[in-house]
Specification:
Elements lengths: L1 H4 L24 H8 L10 E6 L10 H4 L3 H21 L8 E2 L5 E2 L4 E7 L3 E8 L6 E7 L3 H11 L12 H23 L8 E5 L8 E7 L12 E9 L2 E7 L1
Antiparallel strand pairs: 1-5, 2-3, 4-5, 6-10, 7-8, 8-9, 9-10
The structure holds coenzyme A.
Coenzyme A binds next to helix 4, strand 4 and helix 6.
Pfam family, one: ACPS
Protein name: Enterobactin synthase component D
Catalytic activity: apo-[peptidyl-carrier protein] + CoA = holo-[peptidyl-carrier protein] + adenosine 3',5'-bisphosphate + H(+); apo-[aryl-carrier protein] + CoA = holo-[aryl-carrier protein] + adenosine 3',5'-bisphosphate + H(+)
C-alpha cells in the first residue's frame, strides 16, 4: 500500500548470489542473512522459500506493464520473479517459466502450484508449494521501520491493542504486526478476492522459547469469504534478520 510504503526506510544491497551453500562460510549479504534466518522455518510439504537480491532487471523478460514502470519497480519485480523461478525449481516444478501477471496483480502460478512473492527495495522472496499441500499461503518481507514511523502508524496497524504487549522494541513490534497482517491478507486474497483493512484481524503475540521461530496468532474479526469466518485463527511465523522481518503463513 502506498501510504505505508513511504514509511519504510530503505538500504542498499550488493548483487551477490543470495543462497548460501554448504562450505561457503558465514552469510555476507542481506539476502544471505535472510535465507539463513528462515532456513528452519516449517514450510508446506514440497514447498520452497527462496530469497533474491534486488539488483537490476537484467535477465528477466519484463511484461509490458512493468517495462513502463520506474527502474526501481522493474528491479523489485524482476527480483521477485527470479526468487519465484528458483523456488519453483527447488520445489520440483517441471518445465518452469517465469510467472506472468495474472488477475488482480497476482502472479500467474503454474497449474497445480500456490505461491506468494514479496519484496522490499533491497531483497525479494518467494514461497511456493504444490496446491495439494496447502490451501493458502502468504509471504511478506518488510524492512523494519524507524521508531518514529512506528509511533505514527501503530494505531492504524494495530487498532485492536496498545503497543507494548509483545515485549519487543516498538519498531519491531509494529513492523512485525504489519508484516503478519500483510502475509495474512496475501494468503487469503487469492481465495476470497476481498479487500480487508488492518482492523480485520487481531494480533496475539506468542512467547516462544529463545531461538525458536517467533509466532503471531491472527484472529479474523469479520468474515472474509471462502469459508474464512470471524473467529478463525491463523498462525504466522516470523524471523528478523538484516533489518527485515520475514513472515510466512500457510495452512
Ligand atoms: C497487496 C499488498 C498486500 C502488497 O503488499 P506490499 O507490502 O505492498 O508488497 P509485497 O512486496 O509484500 O507484495 C507484492 C506482491 O504481492 C503480490 N500481490 C499483489 N496483490 C496481491 C493480492 N491482492 N494478494 C496477494 N498477493 C498480491 C504480487 O506478487 C506483488 O508483487 P509483484 O507485483 O512484483 O508480482 C498491499 O499492497 C495491500 O493492499 N495491503 C492492504 C491489505 C492488507 O494488508 N490488509 C490487512 C488485513 S489484516
Amino acid at each position: 500500500m502506498s501510504y505505508l510504503r513511504f514509511a519504510m526506510v530503505r538500504g542498499m544491497v550488493s548483487a551477490i548470489p543470495a543462497v548460501m551453500k554448504k562450505g561457503e562460510g558465514l552469510p555476507r549479504t542481506q539476502t544471505d542473512l535472510l535465507a539463513h534466518a528462515v532456513r528452519e522455518l516449517p514450510l508446506p510439504s514440497g514447498g520452497a522459500l527462496v530469497f533474491a537480491p534486488v539488483g537490476d532487471a537484467a535477465g528477466v523478460d519484463l511484461p509490458e506493464t512493468i517495462r513502463r514502470c520506474a527502474p526501481r519497480r522493474q528491479a523489485t519485480f524482476a527480483a521477485g520473479r527470479m526468487a519465484a523461478l528458483e523456488a519453483l525449481r527447488k520445489a520440483g516444478c517441471q518445465d518452469v517459466t517465469v510467472p506472468g501477471i495474472g488477475g488482480d496483480g497476482l502472479p500467474d502460478w503454474p497449474p497445480g502450484w500456490l505461491g506468494s512473492i514479496s519484496h522490499s527495495d533491497d531483497a525479494a522472496a518467494a514461497l511456493v508449494a504444490p496446491d495439494g499441500c496447502a490451501r493458502l499461503l502468504g509471504l511478506d518481507l518488510e524492512r523494519i521501520v524507524t521508531a518514529e514511523t512506528a509511533m505514527q502508524i501503530a494505531s492504524e496497524i494495530m487498532p485492536e491493542q496498545p503497543t507494548g504487549r509483545s515485549g519487543l522494541p516498538l519498531e519491531h513490534e509494529v513492523t512485525r504486526a504489519f508484516s503478519a497482517k500483510e502475509a495474512l491478507y496475501k494468503a487469503l486474497y487469492p481465495l476470497t478476492r476481498q479487500f480487508r483493512d488492518f482492523s480485520a484481524a487481531h494480533i496475539c503475540w506468542q512467547k516462544d522459547a529463545p531461538g525458536a521461530p517467533v509466532r503471531v496468532m491472527l484472529t479474523l474479526t469479520e468474515d472474509w469469504g471462502a469459508g474464512c469466518v470471524a473467529g478463525t485463527v491463523f498462525e504466522a511465523i516470523q524471523r528478523t534478520a538484516a533489518g527485515h522481518v520475514a513472515t510466512i503463513l500457510w495452512r
